[in-house]
Amino acid sequence: MNKALQGPEGRKFYGSVTVGQRGQIVIPAEARKDFAIAPGDKLLVLGDLAQGIAITTIPLLQKNLKGTVELFNSIQPDRNSDNKC
């Protein structure tokens, strides 16, 4: 089994994954271990059309981005509103 390649400032390259027919991917075991990802955990998939996609854990994003919870709450539709999608 290949070890992740270590880069500067704690960055790692864990390898490549293949997207299955249902759009599923498998997160490499070393990445799951490093980020304490367990079965049933929810992950966020973020995207920027110019830079690509990123997958992160909610606690890690909350830790690293000030105001993340407030931002997500502000962009969610108001559940009590008559303007339901």
UniProtKB/TrEMBL annotation:
Q: Where in the numbering of this chain does the SpoVT-AbrB domain appear? A: 17-63
**InterPro entries of this UniProt entry?**
SpoVT-AbrB_dom, SpoVT-AbrB_sf
Q: Any idea which GO molecular function terms this record carries? A: DNA binding
**Pfam families membership:** MazE_antitoxin (PF04014)
| Name the record gives this protein | SpoVT-AbrB domain-containing protein
The species this protein belongs to is Candidatus Bipolaricaulis anaerobius
